Structures are given as structure tokens and as C-alpha cells.
Amino acid sequence: MVFCDPAAAVDAPEVLLGTWLPLDGFARLQTRPTCIGGDRADGTQALHEDGEWSQRGGGDAQACIFESFRSKSKNRWTSIGACSIGMATEVRYDWILSRDGSRLHTIAKYEGGRAYETHYRRCTIAEKIAGIGLPVGDDDPDDLERTGFALGYAKAAIELCPQFIYDEHRAAGVAREAEAFTADQINSVKRGADIRPIPEIVRERLYSPRSDAELGMLDDKTQITDRNLYCAELLTRFGKDGTLIRGLLREKFSPL
Question: pTM, whole model, 2 decimals?
């Protein structure tokens, strides 16, 4: 992607920073974007401190970077920068923030084109927390891929919550159960073009989400800064009575 000079980017107003869910333009979609997972959720838009305004997801996803944020009033700013959907395009943005900071109205005026207006609502911390351990940015993952992501996420999250132990023995057992269940499913239906041995197919689908899980944890590290809140939810999902995988994590000084 080609943008205006990154060195010219300025700090964006703090009140505009965060993740925003667009509320317009989804009439033709079967499912609307949600805020679950915050920055990791497909379709959300995030404004960063360096002036980058980026959209999560593929297809028509775009990113912009702005060289200025000029205040026009208490809750209104104008920005000049460039956006990219395959090629860079100069753009002027008007940002209009609601008094309570929960709603945003943007007017984008591209070079040589008409203006586009979009309305957003701010994603909440509760919605960001709701994505912990889930592959929210993936396209319709199956149960095996969800399990692989959850295992990888919980293991990576120990970096943020060192008071927990990741039970490798429990993780191996969960992986074996998931592999066996999926292999039985594949055996029960007609095979497609993939003629590899079933165990190889299954293991690839289980372990391929691991790198995405690690990246997802790093995104959550940035957007959920309250470590006590984060670790408490992590244990809710992976602890003794975990809602995602039971017994995967335990506190270091708790009885077995």
C-alpha cells in the first residue's frame, strides 16, 4: 500500500482513538459485522495514535493515514491524508463525535469523487473481552479450527497471566479427542479432491490456527489493558469450569 509520508503523521485526538463498528451499508450482507473481539473483528474500523485509520477484514478493506487533525470545535475535526484500496487516494475526513463519545459520524471526501458519510458506534471493553480465545476474525471456522485456536491462544496468553499454568497433558488430550472426532466425520462423508491421509488433513486443520491465535492474543494485549480483568476472563474460559475448554489453565498455587 502507498500512503502519504508516514513521518508526517501526527497524533490523533485521544477521544477518537479506539475501535468503531460501522452502522451503515450492510443491507446486502447475510450477517452484519459485530464488535466481538474489538480490533480483531471483521468489519470494524480502528483509529490509532499515529493517525492510521484501518479496517479489519479482506475484500474491500482499506487503510488510511492522516497528516493532520485540525479541531473545528470541541467535538469536530478535519483531517487530510491518503486512503488505499489497491492504490493511494488523497482524502479529506470530517470527524464528528457525539457528546458522550459513543457515536462517530465521518464524512470522507476523496479526490475527484463524491463524499461518503458513515456512522459508527464505539466498541465497548465488554465486547473486546467477549472475543478472548475465539477466532473472531476468521471466516466461519469449524469446531476443529476453533479448538486449535483456543489451545494456541491459551498457551500464548500465559505471557500476560504468569500466575496460571498451561496444562500440556490436558491440551494433548483435548487435541486427540478433537482429531478423532473430525477423522470420524471425514470418514463418514465422500472425500473431495484432497487425497492426503486423513490424520495429516486433521492435524493441519488443528494446528494451522496456532499462529493466528498468538497474533490474536497480542492484539488483545494491546486493546484490553486491565490485566486483572483479562486474566479473570481467561480463567473463566480455560479454568476448572472453563466455558471454552475445561481444565486447560490452573492457578500456580491452587490445589490440583
Answer: 0.82
- Domains of the chain plus CATH, in order, are 6-126 (2.40.128), 131-251 (no CATH)
Residues in CB range of 204: below 8 A, 6 or more apart:
none
Residue 203 exposed, middle or buried by CB count within 10 Å (0-12, 13-18, 19+): middle
pLDDT in tens, 119-177: 999 999 999 999 999 998 766 788 899 999 999 999 999 999 999 999 999 999 999 99
The residue that leads in pLDDT, 79 or 255, is 79
**Do residues 147 and 245 make contact, with C-beta atoms less than 8 angstroms apart?**
yes
Instruction: Evaluate the CA torsion angle 69, 70, 75, 81 in order and state its sign.
Output: negative
Cα separation, 70 vs 61, in Å, equals: 26
Is-contact 149 141, C-beta < 8 A? yes
Which strand (E) or helix (H) includes residue 69? strand 63-73
Residue 211 burial by Cβ neighbours in a 10 Å radius (0-12, 13-18, 19+): exposed
At residue 116's C-alpha, the angle toward residues 52 and 9, to 5°, is 20
